[in-house]
């Protein structure tokens, strides 16, 4: 008997490469928070200057969402993500040689440009590589690696700092980012037809048709249709992103100031919710895909997970506010973040479902909601803490936004796609043989040219 070794599918290799990108990029994003106290001490920075360094990332990050996604739609994700990864890799590497606050701000701004377009471009990369029934899992596992990167950054960066200083941490991470760029160039192709390793059977599984990628590049971006179909997804992403940014920026301060944890326990209890998010990201994508395979109803598979995820996060966030025991509050926070992250892969899958070949631009539109939340949420949260003297009010407002997001998610319709809009307009507006195309779809309808070819002319 012949022994057949099971061949690893090409799309799964590409998925693994993208997981590494999400992992590295998130470490490059949050490493400044870990090294911040050391940088401040060495350069003699004020709190305002350090805050300026922290915030320099957020604005280009939000700006590059749509730009990066649109570029990937027009020029292909391979070229665009290569350029973006070089930008953020060089910016991270150069941070290790920064000698002034101006240089730090400039490099963090460059990092925001590079990473701002990366996730929408990665979403566009999945358009022709992931079948519909695997898109939720693909988005879930990649964002799980992003959350894992956030969770391991403190011990990883501190270990390098202890061995060689904070500058070495940025230099090593920059080299790792550039090494990933080389790996990506060697493995990724914009479409299955450009890949020499893929088999015809796997191409059929994906559902790719030869020439789809080239045809998509030549088409004009339907901005109006994309906005009409994606604005509600963007709003839901804003509601999700509001609370996520609270976790990413205010969680350590909350646990220390409101719950009284000392520094020895702070690292552990800060990591617990983030690790719960790693599980939630993967589970949300898997559940959504399984639900679609079982029912064949894409809208149910996506919206149900959104409602359960945001609703579950809300259900655990409210008792956390009133919990008297600090450990109980941590477990409520972890459960709330677990359910919150269940929604993340579905939010990133919706641009693929709704926009198809325009998924890069649509993904940028969607994640603009997250970017705007990143600019507003930490500031408003801090202002409310300062004015009320308590964390309860800002957490309650965050819970209210989650409730609004749950209601809005119920109205997202994956059946109303941009490609369906284009097809309908084509049938209504294109003439075939002098007759509108929709008339050909109605056999009983007959058009005749009037015998008067020219209008009547008045004569004297």
UniProtKB/TrEMBL annotation:
Which UniProt keywords are present, listed alphabetically? Cell membrane, Membrane, Transmembrane, Transmembrane helix
Instruction: Give membrane topology per the record.
Output: Multi-pass membrane protein
Question: Has keyword Cell membrane?
Answer: yes
Task: Cite the Major facilitator superfamily (MFS) profile domain residue spans from the record.
Answer: 14-417
GO MF annotations in UniProt: transmembrane transporter activity
- The primary site where this protein sits is membrane
Q: Where in the cell is it found?
A: Cell membrane
Tell me a GO cellular component: plasma membrane
* Pfam families hit by this protein: MFS_1
- Record InterPro entries: MFS, MFS_dom, MFS_Na/Anion_cotransporter, MFS_trans_sf, Sugar_P_transporter
Annotated signal peptide: none
In the UniProt record, does the keyword Ribonucleoprotein occur? no
List residues traversing the bilayer. Answer: 12-32, 52-71, 83-111, 169-188, 226-248, 268-288, 300-323, 329-350, 362-385, 391-412
**Protein name from the UniProt record:** Sulfoacetate transporter SauU
**Species this protein is from:** Paraburkholderia piptadeniae
